Amino acid sequence: MAKMKFNRITLRHVRMPFRHAFSTSRWTLTHKDAILIEIATEDGLKGWGECVALAYPDYCYESTAINALVLRDYLIPLVLGQEFADAQSLWEALSPVAGHRMAKAGLECAFWDLDAQMQGQSLSQRLGGTRTRVETGASVSVHDSPEALLKTVAGYLQEGYKRIKLKIKPGKDVLETALIRNTWPDLMLQVDGNASYNLEHAAHLAKLDEFGLLMIEQPLSNEDIIDHAQLQRNLRTAVCLDESILSADDARRALSIEACRIINIKPGRVGGVRESVRIHDLCLSQGVPVWMGGMFETGIGRALNVAVASLPGFSLPGDISASSKYFEEDIIELPFTLNEDSTLTVPTSPGLGVQIDTKRLDKYTIARDVFQ
Ligand code: OSB
Ligand code: MG
After folding, report:
1. What are 262-280's pLDDT values in tens digits?
2. Whose CA is closest to 219, among 200, 245, 236, 239?
3. Does any ligand 1 atom lie closer than 6 A to the CB of residue 22?
4. What is the pLDDT of residues 4-23, one digit of tens each?
5. What's the 192 CA to ligand 2 centre distance in angstroms?
6. Residue with the nearest Cα to atom 6 of ligand 1?
7. CB 296 near ligand 1, within 6 Å
8. In which element (H, E) is residue 204 found?
9. How far apart are alpha carbons 350 and 26 in whole angstroms?
10. Are strands 133-135 and 83-84 parallel, antiparallel or unpaired?
11. What pTM, to 2 d.p., does this model score?
12. Which numbered ligand comes closest to the C-alpha of 336?
């Protein structure tokens, strides 16, 4: 296969206002910050990637500013001017740097955009995707009052989302979940603890068992698959791991001790598409459902997630909403919109299959750095 040379790499720090502030168990965000990466090749092709870290390092140790630093000082010097035949060789070139999978994934996403363009294929086709539409659901932030929560959920259902994921934290969990369940008895419903609980909450979390949830996502800390295994033994509800799974090896270890029954895959979190496919394949071979997570991506990261979610093992609705769930305007020309069946359509043009709206991109760019 033709090799691709990374001739010029442009980093942009974008900051896009959210339509509504979003609160997780620890932090409230009013803007989406991200490092966007453009890689230009010798023959003028351009590939785009997004680093999914948030502005504040609460989900994990990576943040937007840390992504920028690690890319500038460590990762870009390893790949600039180099040629790569496949994602494996790119990954090996980045291996001197430990961790920092979100920063690495931004580069890897741009690689795949270029790679699929060179093949004249959409990324979904390139990866062997089997769906033309991917099922989605809405992730619902922690709310101050039950009334406000019900109003938000009702709004998403009205817009057409068929699955709701409620963010929970100690003190805002069982009652809130009961409220939604009692209001919508047949709703596909799941909860996400974002690592805010510990094993002392096990009996309390077991109260969620009566609500017929699809899963409880990452109740315990990022590092701890051992305690998750103990918790899962005491819950009927399936545990799903998000923060704890950074690689296919992590997934294999977690499944081998039954720390979870479901895995949330975020290409940005696990180091990119290649590692996502490895987790997907492992889970498919063991009959473990996976689904596509989200990190409030701009149109670039969203396009990547949609393409990866078109693989056959993604059997549960993903956190891949329409662009308008978060943003007044996206940085791509045609924002992602929700179909009537609670799906997004998988792009079919080459690469990521989205066109950058350069005017809007410039409007939201707060810093730019070119390496060549
Ligand atoms: O835990 O899944 C999470 C967003 C940022 C960080 C972590 C998470 C989330 C979400 C939002 O739940 C999902 C989305 O992008 O819609
Ligand atoms: Mg999560």
Report:
1. 999 999 999 999 999 999 9
2. 239
3. no
4. 999 999 999 999 999 999 98
5. 6
6. 295
7. yes
8. helix 202-206
9. 39
10. unpaired
11. 0.97
12. 1
Atom of ligand 1 nearest to the CA of 165: 12
How far apart CA 337 and CA 344 sit, in angstroms, is 6
C-beta separation of 247 from 275 below 8 A: yes
| CA 265 – CA 271 distance, rounded (Å) | 11
Both tokens assigned to 201: 């909450």
Atom in ligand 1 nearest the alpha carbon of residue 192: 1
pLDDT above 80: residue 1 = no
Distance CA 269, CA 103 (A): 9
Cα radius of gyration rounded to whole Å, the chain = 20
Q: With beta carbons less than 8 A apart as the criterion, state whether 105 and 267 touch.
A: yes
Token duo for residue 232:
């899962």
Residue 20, CA distances (Å) to 17, 25, 194, 328 in order: 8, 16, 20, 10
Single-letter residue type at 263: I
Query: Distance from the CA of 165 to the center of ligand 2, in angstroms?
Result: 9
CA 104–ligand 1 middle distance (angstroms): 19
Kindly tell me the burial class for residue 73, based on how many C-beta atoms sit within 10 Å of its own C-beta (0-12, 13-18, 19 or more). exposed
